[in-house]
Specification:
About 35% of the residues lie in helices and about 20% in strands. By secondary structure, it is of the alpha/beta class.
Length: about 70
């Protein structure tokens, strides 16, 4: 089982956007992932992220977001 429970995005000090990181996690066969940006409250829900993923990549993503 692959997972990463400490991922930063461009909303804090990360170098990639959520959707790009999620795509990479799917390609690598991850089971779980958690976005842990510093001092940021993002109003993008898991449902919103999944919908954006499907719109961009025309497939459902398989990583459980925590």
């Amino acid at each position: 089982m692959k997972y990463d429970l400490h991922v930063h995005t461009t909303l804090s000090d990360g170098k990639e956007e959520k959707i790009i990181l999620l795509r990479r996690a799917n390609e690598l066969g991850f089971s779980f992932m958690s976005f842990t940006d510093h001092n940021v409250i993002d109003n993008m829900s898991i449902s919103d992220i999944n919908a954006l993923y499907e719109a961009l990549y025309e497939e459902q993503q398989r990583v459980s977001l925590i």
